[in-house]
Design brief:
Blueprint: H1 2-9, H2 13-20, H3 23-28, H4 30-39, H5 41-61, H6 74-98, H7 103-122, H8 127-155, H9 158-183, H10 188-205, H11 213-218, H12 222-233, H13 240-258, H14 263-267, H15 270-287, H16 291-305, H17 311-332, H18 338-367, H19 373-385, H20 388-403, H21 405-416, H22 419-474, H23 490-497
Helix pairs in contact: 4-8, 4-9, 5-8, 5-9, 5-10, 5-16, 6-8, 6-22, 7-8, 7-10, 8-9, 8-21, 9-17, 9-21, 13-23, 15-21, 15-22, 16-17, 17-20, 18-20, 18-22, 20-21
GO molecular function: transmembrane transporter activity
GO cellular component, one term: plasma membrane
Subcellular location: Cell membrane
Length: about 500
């Protein structure tokens, strides 16, 4: 008997938590999946809005305006597209502050106002009105995306956390695909009304799921946290050890932070600065590797590089490739790991971007600048016969992006930050991401005018190479790792960091 007790004493805290979960709870994860699917309606609505811009801007500029509508120039189109990202920059700061009140609370308070911004877009009668609506929509959707990602990170066990986070990206890609597809047939007003309906589904789905246990415990709501964790792990699961681990680690973290008399030192502590630098670095590369432009200018880019194929068809094909790659990423991310997928993504993106830039250079310089009539006719024929080259490059780019840096950079925001810094860290990384997105989308037209379409994509290819080096040198592997407040060794790590 003493021998048996001694063996039980030697069991690690991680094993003890797993033993206290029932086999059924470990194998099915049913309620965690249901909760993730409920909040994934937020990224779905965000995907509809991302996919809206490309066909909508083409509709506004194609000369077939609605009665009483307005014309949109190239510069105005770049402002409409980029102002949503500038709004998201502000939204990241607001969302980080608001998440202190709860992740689910943020989603509830932003869902219906998000619908109103799209109704305002559909009813807009001037460029100014649609620009203001775009800014407000970006601000709200950033809060939704950020709260959704943190919610899923905090409710999921390590075995399925990467997969559930990929579900958010998959639903977002489905939203983009729907907007691209319907955008080939609907004008920008009709498409805006379709987008406006999606956040209503999110609002009602949130009434059936709880707040995250970590967020509730952080605010001292112990009874509600226990009920939330019990709901997520299943009615038969024993959540006492897991709840005690979270509670102890939160208290230890507060004590560790409270011992610092200089708050400036806390802000510069390794526990905050290292995740900020890693996540912001990944967000920079995510935005400046070209794939971000496809959500806003896919139809326009294909108009400039495809001579025989419908540009809307090219945009839809790229969106389908994104969706399939996101599904594949969801299956691989918890098995292969984060780093291998990031490295594969960096290599593929560099090659695809260089190929697209070379294609654009060859035909812009050789055929479109020729003055010989015979050569012009021959050039047009050759462009038509080689339409598959830019399409293949774009498909490779979107697959690489959706397989690696797209979903994983967002996942790491939730995984790398400790609970006490998660709201602040998520706000910093998300706001920085959207600031980079704003600069990228707004200046893409200007870069194209100065260095050509080929120069723009060669520049993106070089940035992708730097992204690969950054991943190899600085990004840690988080596969299978508990987030801090659920890690039985967290208190020990706090002591080491102090």
């Amino acid at each position: 008997m003493c021998e048996k007790a001694r063996k039980m004493t030697n069991i690690t805290p991680e094993t003890r938590i797993m033993m206290m979960r029932t086999p059924d709870a470990r194998n099915t994860y049913r309620r965690q999946i249901l909760a993730a699917l409920a909040v994934s309606l937020g990224p779905f609505a965000a995907g509809l809005s991302k996919g809206y811009m490309s066909p909508a801007l083409a509709s506004m500029q194609d000369g077939k305006q609605l009665q009483g509508s307005f014309s949109v120039s190239d510069q105005q189109a770049s402002w409409i597209a980029s102002l949503s990202l500038l709004g998201a920059f502000i939204g990241g700061i607001m969302g980080g502050l608001a998440m202190r009140l709860g992740r689910r609370t943020v989603l509830l308070t932003t869902a219906l106002p998000y619908t109103l911004t799209w109704l305002a877009t559909a009813l807009a009668t001037s460029v100014r009105m649609i620009s203001i609506a775009s800014f407000c929509a970006g601000m709200l959707v950033c809060c939704i995306n950020m709260a959704t990602l943190v919610y899923v990170t905090e409710i999921a066990v390590p075995e399925i956390r990467g997969c559930l986070s990929s579900v958010l990206k998959i639903l977002s890609q489905i939203g983009i695909l729907i907007s691209f597809t319907l955008g080939a047939y609907l004008n920008w007003t009709q498409l805006a009304l379709m987008v406006a309906a999606a956040p209503i589904l999110l609002f009602f789905a949130l009434f059936f799921i709880p707040e995250t246990p970590s967020s509730l415990l952080l605010r001292g709501k112990e009874q509600e946290a226990e009920e939330s964790l019990q709901w997520l792990r299943g009615p038969d699961a024993d959540v006492r050890q897991e709840l005690a681990t979270i509670r102890t680690n939160i208290l230890a973290s507060k004590l560790a932070n409270g011992s610092h008399t200089n708050k400036f030192k806390v802000l510069l502590s390794k526990r905050l600065t290292r995740p900020v630098l890693i996540t912001c670095g990944l967000m920079f590369f995510q935005r400046f590797t070209g794939a971000n432009l496809l959500n806003f200018y896919a139809v326009d880019l294909f108009k400039k590089t495809l001579s025989s194929m419908n540009p809307h068809g090219g945009a839809i094909a790229a969106s389908v490739a994104q969706l399939l790659a996101s599904c594949l990423s969801g299956m691989l991310i918890d098995n292969v790991g984060r780093l291998p997928l990031l490295m594969i993504s960096g290599v593929m993106m560099s090659i695809a971007l260089a190929g697209f830039g070379s294609y654009a250079y060859y035909f812009e310089e050789v055929f479109r600048n020729t003055t010989n009539t015979t050569q012009i006719g021959q050039g047009t024929y050759l462009e038509s016969s080689y339409d598959w080259i830019p399409l293949l490059c774009v498909l490779t780019l979107t697959i690489a992006f959706s397989l690696g840096i797209g979903p994983i950079s967002s996942l790491l925001v939730g995984e790398l930050f400790p609970l006490e810094y998660r709201s602040t860290g998520s706000a910093l990384a998300t706001s920085f991401s959207h600031l980079c997105g704003f600069v990228n989308v707004k200046t893409a037209t200007d870069f194209q005018n100065h260095i050509g379409l080929y120069g723009l994509f060669w520049m993106y290819s070089g940035i992708s190479v730097l992204c690969l080096l950054f991943v190899v040198l600085f990004v840690p592997e988080t596969k299978g790792r508990e987030i801090d407040e659920m890690d039985p060794k967290y208190v020990e790590s706090l002591c080491i960091n102090r």
